[in-house]
């Protein structure tokens, strides 16, 4: 019993071994020091508020914060608690949204434009969906999908609170003979069509062959980058089998999403894990299958981690290793994998 307790207190040794194999002794040791609780970070919801208005209110209420260089609408809280921030009316009104810095990166890389057709394939709880809507300036078509009932309704609530969708007069309800997979739509700005769907991502993607200009697939993953040393709830579930399970799901989603992307379109694939099986190896398989898949460079000014080109005797595409963004975790930002892919015409 005591032995098990001791084991629970630390991050699994097998994970640490894998980290060393990926990055070498020195870099993996540096990464391990970042498995700590991070400060509260948030962004201005520009669908509802101006940055200047938010800064003024924060200053009036004694909040100290730091601007994020690579995303002008985001901030790091320096002197008060998350609870104190959520007590503010600007939070309750959906004018600011609490979100990890790493989570803000994929929409920035996707760069959705007003008027485009965009799909967020695994969207709940809606952090990135609402950010995408803001970057689109409320113009175009956006579909947000999640197939988990509990997460879907959290997504729906957040989209209404953040002004992405208006409350639907007759929302579909489970158990009342209504099809929950049908679009849940609402106008948010002139020329903006927003739909919420609750379907398996691979099924939904197949409904829209070569339809979308931009697709975000922030895939379900083993969440290794969210480990906090000493907090077994963040890593107690982890085992190598979990990586295999996630990799299988990701592959189904990734290949289906590729089919829904129009020629010339951009897809961003991201995870919050270190496992190459869920990252570079997944994208390598996609490139091997589709010769029209091109890896594009990413430059947000964030520090990257260099990974070894071979893992568990599996070769990884050199272009993916070179151009994908593996964020070097710090005490403010967690590790994240982001790759930007274009479907060549």
UniProtKB/TrEMBL annotation:
One of its GO terms (molecular function) is RNA binding. S-adenosyl-L-methionine binds at residues 146, 179, 218. The active site is at 272 (nucleophile). Keywords: Cytoplasm, Methyltransferase, RNA-binding, S-adenosyl-L-methionine, Transferase. GO terms for biological process: RNA methylation. Residues 30-344 form the SAM-dependent MTase RsmB/NOP-type domain. Pfam families: Methyltr_RsmB-F (PF01189), Methyltr_RsmF_N (PF17125). Signal peptide: none annotated. Belongs to the class I-like SAM-binding methyltransferase superfamily. RsmB/NOP family. This is Ribosomal RNA small subunit methyltransferase B. It comes from Candidatus Magasanikbacteria bacterium GW2011_GWC2_37_14.
């Amino acid at each position: 019993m005591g032995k098990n307790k001791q084991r629970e207190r630390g991050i699994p040794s097998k994970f640490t071994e894998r980290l060393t194999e990926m990055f070498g002794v020195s870099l993996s040791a540096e990464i391990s020091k970042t498995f700590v609780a991070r400060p509260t970070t948030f962004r201005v919801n520009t669908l509802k508020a101006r940055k200047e208005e938010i800064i003024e209110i924060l200053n009036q209420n004694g909040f100290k914060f730091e601007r994020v260089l690579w995303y002008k609408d985001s901030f790091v809280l320096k002197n008060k608690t998350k609870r104190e921030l959520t007590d503010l009316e600007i939070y309750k009104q959906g004018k600011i949204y609490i979100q990890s810095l790493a989570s803000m990166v994929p929409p920035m890389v996707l760069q959705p434009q007003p008027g485009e057709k965009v799909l967020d394939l695994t969207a709940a709880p809606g952090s990135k969906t609402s950010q995408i809507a803001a970057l689109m300036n409320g113009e175009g078509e956006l579909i947000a999908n999640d197939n988990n009932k509990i997460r879907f309704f959290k997504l729906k609530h957040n989209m209404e609170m953040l002004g992405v969708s208006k409350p639907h007069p007759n929302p579909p309800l489970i158990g009342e003979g209504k099809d929950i997979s049908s679009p849940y739509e609402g106008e948010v700005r002139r020329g903006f069509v927003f739909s919420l769907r609750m379907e398996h991502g691979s099924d939904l993607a197949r409904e829209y062959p070569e339809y979308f200009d931009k697709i975000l697939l922030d895939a379900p993953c083993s969440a290794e980058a969210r480990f906090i040393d000493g907090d077994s709830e963040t890593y107690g579930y982890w085992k190598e089998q979990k990586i295999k399970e996630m990799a299988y799901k990701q592959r189904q989603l990734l290949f289906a999403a590729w089919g829904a992307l129009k020629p010339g379109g951009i897809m961003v694939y991201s995870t919050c894990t270190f496992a190459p099986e869920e990252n570079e190896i997944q994208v390598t398989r996609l490139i091997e299958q589709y010769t029209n898949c091109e890896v594009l460079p990413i430059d947000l000014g964030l520090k990257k981690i260099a990974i070894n080109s071979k893992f568990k005797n599996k070769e990884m595409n050199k272009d993916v290793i070179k151009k994908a963004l593996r964020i070097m975790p710090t005490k403010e930002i967690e590790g994240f994998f982001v790759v930007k892919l274009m479907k060549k015409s």
